[in-house]
Give the backbone structure.
Amino acid sequence: MSADDGQDVPRTSLVLRDRMGSGGQGDVYPVEGAGDLLFKEYKNPHTVDQAALSVLPAFRQSLAAADLARLDAVAAWPLCRVTDGGRAVGFLMRRAPDRLTWQAPSGRTKLLELQHALHPPKAGTRTVPQPSPEQRRALAAACADAVDWFHAAGMVIGDISHANILWSLSPEPSVHFLDCDGFRRVGGAAVQAQADTPDWGDPLTPPSQACVDSDAYKTALAVVRILTQDPYVTPGATLRLVPGCLNDRQEDAVRSLFQQATGPRGTRPKPAEWRNALSDRGTIQLRATTPRQRPTVDTSVLDGVRNRKPIPLRGR
Amino acid sequence: MQLLPFYLVCDESGSMAAGGVDAINGALPDLHDEISSNPAVADKARFAMIGFSTDATLLQPLVDLSEIDSLPSLSAGGVTSFAAAFRLLKSTIQTDVDQLKAEGHSVFRPVVFFMSDGGPTDTDADWRGALKELNESRYAPKIIAFGISTADVATITEVANFKAFIQESDNISPAAALREFASSLTRSIVNSTTSISANGGEGFDLQVDDHVPGFTSLSLDKM
């Protein structure tokens, strides 16, 4: 089966293996004989906005090759709708690659969720790979960069949280979004009514009105929680950054942006501002910051004998 | 931090010897794995385990599951004193909640998953009196009761104050039912705590399966 063309797939054509996950909105099954394809089946398909779900595969189909590769790298995007009796009951997506998993002390393989980068390790999470301070900076930058890319493409993410972003340190620090049926076009409808994840809500925006600005607020939460390894820090709190993850320029910029995130809607730092603040590119010290010395001029050569003559004034 | 304490209260009387305690003991690592590897859940959930037979024992004091590497096992023997279980539960909850509050936490009403494979061997007055005291205590818990094997529908219904389930004996073995019981408890911990924020005055929805495979849901609309 190919889901890559974005065309609807009938539910009856799918042979499913055992359910591998269950959330509030749906269940996820591997599809037999379809490689890494997964089927998310909605528990209440009658609450699904059919058109809003159509937007997501169509968005993927609209991308040029380079952007398509980028989307598939950063998201388990809905490839196509799955329909039953003319109604969409779910969609197909790809399983997260192995690099986005970790092996628990029990030996079981689990998804490497953002929460595992935010909570200091305990006995139950001692086998989670721990980012170096430099990798934390790169991970936070990758997160901001991905949100910026979606915004530039006209998509709102909606529910940015510890559970629906995966991460990896290899081959380089990167992120991968899950639950992408929560995305919607800027100004468009959501596939289903969706609540914010607790501790990840924008206090100024109800979840039903998710927009680039609420995404910006949640990007601030994600970035700073990665940099502080504190899963609950919010704008306005004292920042305790993981030592060594930022240089002085980056730290000044992050502190300033985090303060800015306490502001009203429309003034929160854009994801691109976070990306620039976290950039590992050095700044270029511009020379010529003082005026060039003006050359000394020998004015004597310009001062000749003056031939002044009276100006005859016409008398009356 | 806002915390939700869960108490697993398990019958470990002699009748649980035939694979019963083994089934629970075998399922506990899965419960631990699921919770302890999920920091957002483990942060807000606390877990304790009481075994009861002739007497009741606090096998695992209330703990953050992500901080422990082993759990004490259930071991079958003796008769079935519901009264001992309810009394120990009441005193344990009282101590635990006071302790958590003293540490600065906000504590939601505790949740009890109670399981028995038979009827109480105490007098009716004794176990009913102990249950009444528990339900009238300051931190009276929400009780979800499961009955397997020879457990009596009326008794299980009476113990529960939130939801009750009785094993469908024809469709599932007691051991398989106990594994489903443990899975249901795990789902309840995960799904309930993921609706809790770390701080702030928001409430939460106690999530307990409406239907547990191998069990019939019992109505609590008693008259």
